[in-house]
Amino acid sequence: MGNKQLYLGAAYYPEVWYFDAKVIDEDIKYMKEGGFNLVRMAEFAWSTMEPRDGVFEFDDFYAVVDRMYANGIFTVMCTPSATSPSWLTLRNEETLVLCEDGTRFQHGSRRHGCSNSPILRKYTNRIVKEMAKKFGSHPGVVGWQIDNEIYPHIRDVVGNADRGCTCPVCMDLFYKRLEDKFITPEQMNRAWHLRLWSQEYYSFRDVPPPRSRTWMNPSLVTEWNNFRSDSNAEFVAEQADTLRENGVTVPIGTDMMPMGGQSYTETNRNLDVVQFNHYHSSDNLWEVCFWYDYIRGLKREPFWVMETDYSYAGSTATHGYQPPGYTRINTMLPYAMGGAANCYWLWRAHPAGHELMFGGVINTHGRPQYNFDESKEITALLKGAGEFLLDTAVKNTGFAMTYSGRAWTMFEGQAVSGAMKYQPRINAAYGALFRAGLRPSVIDEEGDLAQYKVIYSPFMPCIEEYGFAARIIRWMKDGGIWIAGPLTDIRNPHGAKYEHTPLGYLEELTGAYLKYGVPARNNADDVDQAISGAYAQPLIMSAAKVKWDIGDYHGEEAARLWADAFELPDRCRPLGIYGSGPLQGLAAAFSAPVGDKGGGVIVLGTNPSAQTLARIVSLAFTKKGLEKGPETSPNVLAIERVTSDGKDAGMIVLEIEMKEGYVILPRPMKNIMTGEAVEGRVEMEPYSVLIAE
């Protein structure tokens, strides 16, 4: 952030309390008692700051920023574009999202405005400009958040999905996008193979929005979803430019959710810091580790968690509460994994409205929640280990896995296999690796490949986005090992199959011949339970058994998700062979050299179990001289930290599943919090934290 320090904060809504001085003083009292030094304000306060067209009233918020700053509490200011006021929406109905069924969003929710609306953009940039002029130079404002949880798809209160605004402005922009990309409708028809079912269009303006209740062409669905994401990214970028043009110099971001449909790559391109919201619970907290490993590398600035659960979540009804100790471990995770801020949603629970049953740090009546003492424990940890956290960084293990917003979008348009859901499978693969001590960084297609010696790219249907294919081939020729698949390199950028080969690049690269490709199962979900490595519902094609030959391991397991079967030339080494059924004798996975500097590729034609995946990655580790992380029980996460010159500095160890565990330290260390020496096997209590140097 603007200041080099760690921040503990919460979303704060003084406008809900009409800036009552007594309430603000009580809030500050508890913030100081709990060790809070950051608030996030104004994200939904457009009607408060501009109650009438062109009448700006910022003084109440400015006084709160002043009051907070005087008490050692900094502010992240937010632009309010997610909640345009009724004087704007009622007078300009065309700014409201036009749903695919022809109805408009109503005023009274949020995210009701169309991000492409020129009227909404005009009014948005006007208030953003005035906010920048008012708050941009205040020393208490250390960052800015643009909008709130912007996302392409729309979902109503009962969960009905909609693929985004279809207003005339959006459609005109979509048609312009198609024209720029394809030049002529004939080229689009050819790229999307629209002769099928007589889908051909003779004008770009004949192309309909892909309504969710119509079985639409997957290439159209993919293009449309990317268009919606890119439109939102442009809306955010425009606000960032307005802030900078009017004096804002502190970091700017937009808070994003743990979903890939809104491209992190494009949305953060014009921003300074990745901001992240999540509401993982005690049941799936390990999954948020994937997101921290991903967002950490997107920007030079340490990431900020802008929203996470403190006590219990909900809207007009609660969704259960977090157990004792959860808040402590959930809060320490982002600092351990490279973040500089953690904010809760929210500070004081609302007295009414859509989210009146969402628990805050203190309740509506100004009384601290049951876990408030955990805030004091967190403050003590940050105070005791703050220098260590600020002066060290998460160690680069030399290993990365790829994550792609474009892959997310493509699989949304075509699942390929009935069991294919992109994010759960990515989570399962990631979980299998870090629980095996194979800690990956997570990079997108534009990530710096040169930092890594081994890269794993599962479920990446198109490898041509952002020039990834050419870059990964050069990287292999320079000595890197790429683990590709399953379901990688199977589609061109239009979401269509390659016409003359099942794989766009991998057959030519390796000399292998993909003889057959069949589903390995027909129904139910077989996603790994990454904690145990067991199958959720092991309904699989029993005829497709794979005999694995990986280093010293020789075992057999059923193929899962998909079964690509290869004939191999002599230069390729099989790692798995189908042992029975119609694929018998063909390779399920193999390695092949690329270049003459020790690089190569490992191609996975099926989705291995957690244990087998770990063995395959370990094989690549051995070839490239990489080391596993410290040995831990599966419920314990050990984050190694290094100094600015890359020297080992210590580690942060966290128990993340509310049960006993252990870590085996690689060398004698010192517990920063107690000063005691620690070495060898260290027992970890449920939700405990060890910070050692």
Brief rundown of the structure:
A hairpin with a 5-residue loop joins strand 5 and strand 6.
Q: Radius of gyration from the CA trace?
A: 26 Å
Q: Mean of the pLDDT scores?
A: 93
Structure class: alpha/beta
The proportion of residues in beta strands is 15-25%
Low-confidence stretches: 522-542
Question: How would you explain this protein's 3D organization?
Answer:
With 693 residues, the protein is α/β, with parallel strands linked by helices. β22 and β23 (553-558) form a beta hairpin. The protein is globular. Mean pLDDT is 93; it is low at 522-542.
Keywords:
693 residues, alpha/beta, nine-stranded parallel sheet, nine-stranded mixed sheet, 17 helices
Topology diagram in text:
Elements (H helix, E strand, L loop, with lengths): L6 E5 L9 H14 L3 E4 L4 H4 L9 H12 L3 E5 L7 H4 L28 H18 L5 E5 L8 E2 L5 E2 L5 H15 L2 H8 L25 H28 L6 E2 L1 E2 L7 H4 L7 E3 L9 H9 L7 E5 L4 E3 L3 E4 L4 H11 L2 E6 L27 H20 L1 E2 L4 E4 L2 H9 L8 H14 L5 E3 L10 E4 L10 H10 L3 E4 L21 H5 L2 E7 L8 E2 L4 E2 L9 E6 L2 E6 L3 E6 L5 E6 L8 E7 L6 E5 L5 H15 L6 E2 L3 E7 L5 E8 L5 E4 L4 E2 L6 E2 L2 E4 L4 E4 L1
Parallel strand pairs: 1-2, 1-13, 2-3, 3-4, 4-7, 8-9, 9-10, 10-13, 15-16, 15-17, 17-18, 18-27
Antiparallel strand pairs: 5-6, 11-12, 14-29, 19-24, 20-21, 22-23, 22-25, 25-26, 26-27, 28-31, 29-30, 30-35, 31-34, 32-33
Helix pairs in contact: 5-8, 6-7, 8-13, 11-12, 14-17
